[in-house]
């Protein structure tokens, strides 16, 4: 009960802080922009045809290149001081730049293959039937024991050696051709002209239509359209000339009434299925007779590939058994093949109907053979149900990459400046960082599922995912965020004089370096999850709405930890919180590798409350604690670059290649082991080394003096400067070296007087530097004096960074102002 009361008391007390209301609104909108689009970018790349390796490369390189900007933007912000206009512009430009991704063309599309495969059927004599399949639609052969086959049309296959694509297109769109038959022995000749209406011809499908419905279709005009059987062989329907039929032998009456060659005997073909190409007898009034769509069962086996098969780009299958009627299989014998004394010719006129009604070329072919077109279910003959069609992949990749880098540069700069502004405002207002991030979690809880629902709604009825609502919503929120950033107050933030030196003085701290290494590993784990979790959910069959709900679950679970992050970090320490984050990342990653139901991801997404909400809050406040007022934006920019830039990029790149090499589930387990091992090493390093170093008292935003790990009441080596209260009141604004600390107001009674011996030493040090201190004219205001005396008051730049001034003593008449300085390196 006490914990619940404390929970709500902290929220209510912080919400009453009017100066922080703009910050809360910005956190709400800013987090909404992050989760409304970024989690979906990986599957957006997948939709554009960018494969897993290219996604990994892009997700890795983009943040690494973009990370150059956050530190530079942070340094620029520290140098400028009041940078809210610049922050607003960067936020707005980032939203508008995201719309450029909608202009990226599709590089590859994954399309469904037709439900049935098309083959041509020929006679192999006593060896049975032979089927041939062209390689227009790829088929990874996987023959089932029984294949349901259906005869669609019969005609002639003729060889035409045409290489010109325009002529090939004209052949396939031909509506008129003539077939001539002549008997060499008898001299009998016959000519039949075939002509078809435009409506009987297939309509050519455009690339836009294919991208829209993502499914290939067969040319189902089997009886009226010319089709390509192989590289140089074409099929011309001729259903009025003959058809294909089979009979089951063993019954004398069947053999007597059959049209088999007289040389075939009952003895040879008994207990076999006898197939033949029978001439069609057209009776009066039956001129429209066509082939019956007869279905039967076949047993196929893949024939050995010959050089001609490779040259003709075809695949052949042999059928020795079939069940023409019923379920009983019999061996096949094919009678009445192409007669040696019969000659079949083809005359084909090529038209360009858009230019002229007269043919522009006439082609002739000899030696045509009888064939029929048959179809069979794809799932009984082929293992692949989809194929990839490539367009200009290079343009897609580099265009998307360039825009992502541009957006990353702007977004990284916005992050660095915004985090710097947050820390500066919280220092000024003595507020808690975790309490502000609550509203960011609420924003992500609302925006991510909303974006998923809008994407699902826009994609309904389409064979592809329509991401436009997410981009439009992202742009609108970024523009709103830019307007809200104009409402924050940064007038109090003074510009830094030498940002680079200030930053390097902080980075020399081993504790800061250890923090950055820990954030890099945490960012690597986070980057892999962010890049490929939605990929996993999609592979498991989850919807875009579920993807959005995962963000909501993580946000809801993270709110209590954000509220209590301050007390938790104060109780167990920053480094220990980061170690807990490592452990929970290992649990999350291992859990993802074990699930098969996409909804089970919600269980492990709830752990994001620790891995992201609590751990990253601890990292940000840890960095704020180790930095100074003049380096807030710079250090936060570096932290963001390490976590969201290099770390995320490494996670995406390494994860993508590991997925390619080992698979999805083993990769999750590899990352789990990595985070657990690294977290353990960081914990040992913290216990064995960092805890023995001098620590800084106070909270993460308002710092007291440094304390030594061995002597908690002692000071670091250095000097203590004591000046008169009157002088310090006048020169207060000129001292930019310290951090204002109101915490000492409540601790006045705990201040112990300085001993006489220490006072004597302090006076000696004071006298040595007192002549170099210029007094502040009484009539001059504090603001003007700051600008005039900024370069002169910095007696020692290093002392400025490591010192702390306490204005609380100014309210006590008999108190002195104390500046704790670190002993210069050259004096050690």
UniProtKB/TrEMBL annotation:
Matching CDD domains: MFS_MFSD6
Keyword Transmembrane helix (UniProt): yes
Transmembrane segments: 21-43, 55-73, 85-106, 397-426, 438-459, 471-492, 512-537, 543-564, 576-595, 667-685
UniProt region (Disordered), positions on chain: 701-828
Bilayer topology annotation: Multi-pass membrane protein
Localization of this protein: Membrane
PANTHER family linked: MAJOR FACILITATOR SUPERFAMILY (MFS) PROFILE DOMAIN-CONTAINING PROTEIN, MAJOR FACILITATOR SUPERFAMILY DOMAIN-CONTAINING PROTEIN 6-LIKE
Family: Belongs to the major facilitator superfamily. MFSD6 family.
Protein name: Uncharacterized protein LOC108626124
Protein species of origin: Ceratina calcarata
Lineage, uppermost ranks: Eukaryota, Metazoa, Ecdysozoa, Arthropoda, Hexapoda
């Amino acid at each position: 009960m006490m914990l619940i009361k404390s929970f709500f008391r902290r929220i209510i007390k912080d919400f009453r802080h009017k100066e922080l209301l703009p910050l809360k609104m910005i956190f709400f909108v800013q987090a909404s922009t992050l989760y409304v689009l970024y989690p979906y970018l990986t599957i957006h790349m997948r939709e554009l045809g960018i494969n897993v390796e290219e996604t990994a490369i892009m997700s890795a390189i983009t943040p690494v290149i973009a990370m150059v900007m956050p530190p530079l933007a942070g340094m620029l912000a520290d140098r400028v001081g009041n940078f809210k206009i610049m922050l607003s512009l960067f936020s707005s430009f980032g939203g508008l730049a995201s719309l450029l991704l909608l202009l990226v063309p599709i590089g590859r599309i994954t399309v469904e293959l037709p439900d049935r495969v098309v083959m041509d059927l020929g006679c192999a004599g006593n060896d049975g039937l032979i089927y041939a399949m062209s390689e227009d639609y790829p088929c990874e052969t996987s023959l089932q024991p029984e294949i349901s086959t259906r005869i669609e049309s019969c005609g002639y296959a003729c060889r035409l050696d045409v290489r010109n694509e325009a002529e090939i297109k004209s052949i396939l769109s031909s509506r008129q051709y003539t077939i001539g038959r002549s008997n060499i022995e008898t001299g009998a000749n016959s000519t039949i002209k075939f002509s078809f209406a435009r409506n009987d011809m297939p309509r050519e499908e455009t690339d836009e239509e294919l991208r829209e419905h993502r499914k290939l279709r067969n040319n189902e005009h089997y009886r009226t359209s010319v089709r390509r059987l192989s590289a140089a062989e074409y099929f011309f329907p001729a259903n009025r000339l003959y058809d294909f039929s089979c009979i089951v032998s063993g019954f004398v009456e069947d053999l007597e009434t059959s049209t088999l060659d007289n040389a075939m005997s009952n003895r040879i073909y008994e207990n076999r299925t006898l197939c033949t190409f029978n001439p069609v007898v057209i009776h009066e009034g039956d001129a429209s007779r066509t082939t019956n769509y007869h279905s039967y069962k076949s047993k196929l086996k893949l024939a050995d590939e010959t050089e001609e098969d490779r040259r003709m780009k075809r695949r052949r299958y042999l059928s020795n058994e079939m069940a023409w009627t019923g379920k009983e299989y019999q061996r096949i014998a094919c009678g009445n093949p192409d007669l040696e004394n019969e000659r079949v010719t083809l005359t084909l006129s090529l038209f360009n109907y858009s230019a002229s009604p007269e043919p522009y070329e006439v082609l002739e072919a000899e030696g045509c053979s009888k064939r029929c077109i048959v179809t069979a279910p794809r799932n009984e003959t082929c293992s692949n149900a989809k194929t990839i069609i490539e367009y200009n992949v290079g343009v897609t990749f580099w265009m998307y990459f360039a825009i992502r880098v541009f957006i990353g540069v702007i977004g990284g700069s916005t992050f660095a400046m915004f985090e710097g502004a947050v820390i500066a405002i919280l220092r000024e207002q003595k507020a808690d960082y975790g309490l502000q991030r609550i509203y960011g979690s609420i924003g992500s809880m609302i925006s991510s599922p909303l974006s998923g629902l809008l994407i699902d709604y826009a994609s309904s009825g389409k064979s592809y995912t329509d991401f436009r609502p997410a981009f439009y919503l992202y742009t609108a929120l970024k523009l709103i965020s830019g307007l809200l950033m104009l409402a924050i107050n940064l007038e109090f933030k003074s510009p830094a004089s030498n940002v680079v030196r200030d930053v390097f003085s902080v980075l020399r701290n081993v504790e800061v370096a250890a923090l950055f290494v820990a954030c890099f590993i945490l960012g690597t784990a986070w980057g892999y999850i962010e890049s490929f979790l939605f990929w996993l959910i999609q592979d498991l069959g989850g919807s875009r709405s579920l993807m959005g709900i995962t963000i909501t679950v993580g946000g809801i679970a993270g709110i209590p930890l954000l509220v209590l992050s301050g007390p938790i970090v104060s109780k167990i320490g920053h480094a220990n919180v980061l170690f807990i984050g490592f452990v929970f990342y290992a649990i999350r990653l291992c859990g993802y590798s074990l699930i098969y139901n996409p909804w089970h991801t919600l269980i492990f997404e709830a752990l994001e409350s620790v891995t992201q909400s609590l751990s990253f809050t601890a990292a940000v406040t840890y960095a704020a604690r180790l930095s100074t007022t003049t380096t807030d934006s710079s250090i936060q920019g570096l932290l963001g670059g390490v976590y969201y830039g290099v770390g995320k990029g490494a996670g995406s790149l390494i994860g993508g290649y590991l997925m390619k090499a080992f698979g999805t589930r083993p990769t999750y387990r590899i990352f789990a082991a990595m985070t657990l091992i690294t977290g353990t090493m960081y914990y040992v390093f913290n216990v064995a080394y960092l805890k023995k170093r001098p620590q800084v008292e106070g909270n993460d935003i308002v710092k007291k003096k440094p304390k030594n790990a061995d002597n908690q009441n002692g000071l670091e080596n250095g000097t203590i400067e004591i000046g008169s209260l009157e002088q310090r009141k006048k020169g207060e604004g000129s001292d930019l070296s310290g951090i204002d600390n109101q915490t000492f107001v409540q601790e006045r009674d705990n201040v112990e007087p300085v001993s006489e011996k220490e006072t004597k030493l302090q006076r000696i040090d004071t006298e040595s530097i007192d002549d170099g201190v210029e007094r502040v004219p009484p009539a001059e205001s504090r603001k003007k004096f700051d600008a005039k005396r900024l370069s002169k008051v910095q007696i020692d730049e290093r002392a400025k960074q490591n010192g702390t001034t306490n204005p609380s003593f100014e309210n006590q008449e008999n108190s002195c102002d104390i500046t704790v300085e670190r002993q210069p390196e050259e004096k050690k």
